[in-house]
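hey m, so remember when u said the tokens were messed up on ur end? i reran from scratch. heres the input so u can diff it against urs
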Amino acid sequence: MISRRVFSFALAAGAVFAPTLSLAQQKYPTRSIRLLVPYAAGGGTDAIARLVANGVSEKIGQTMVIENNGAAGGNVATQQAAGAAPDGYTVLMANQGPMVVNPHLFKNMKVDPLTAFDPVTLITAAPLVLVVPNDSKFKTIGDLMEFAKKNPGKLTYGSAGNGSASHLATVLLNHLAKTEMVHVPYRGAGPALNDLLGGRTDFMITTLPSVVGLIEGSQMRPLAVTTKTRTKKFPDVPSIAESGWPDYEATAWYGFVVPKGTPQDITAKLREATVETITKGVVRERLEAEGADPIGNSPQEFAAMMKAESARWADVVKQAGIKVD
């Protein structure tokens, strides 16, 4: 039988008795933690997951082991995480696609992400950027969109997968500009960017962290960013909104969630380690260097944000008339 009270050093010094955690929760974590990432390695979600996981591992004294699975637009990883034991040893890297877009996009979703998980914290949000290979004939977003209007269905664009931020950001642009382009989904931004570099697609809207190295290495040319205003990282790159589509705005966000029913004290410990990781030292500097703003909000704030995002993208998906079997 587990005692309702334990003696700590503070109690031994004369502190007031108080209810405490179970012995198992006190010792958490006693082994490595699985961090499921619903995209392939090499993209923005994966990069941020690895950066934050390293910091959290140091804080909690156990390794966060990353497992990438981009199948079915991230739905497979989401289902695996939802079905895991709610004991704090499985965490899902949650972002826009699997959490708030896919339920409106896929007909055969087996879980409702908004009810299958307990939020831990929103880690960061970052702009997306429209890029083309450096040798592309498109020098500006005006060039690209003019070609798209005159040649319906001729342009191809890659994405990190059906329902991903990169997919929906382009859907939104097509919807507002009244253009038609061909979508080529991948299992992550990494593979999509590789094919873009190889000339197998024409352009891509992708997360800034996934492509900043290619831009700085002069392999990719940024044509526009998806936030309302320009970013500090690339102040000379215009926003899509200022380039002729004032109603356009899209961002990518990343957070941690755990299976529903995970003890609150364990969730709180994960959140504390995560917030400390992203708001101090080298991780904060790395996030900001890649155009991402550290956040670290409360579980309640994260839940409210995801609910609002779900409603927003449900409307976009419905208006665009897109479905994935």
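this time it looks ok to me. The radius of gyration is 21 Å. if urs says something different then somethings off w ur setup not the seq
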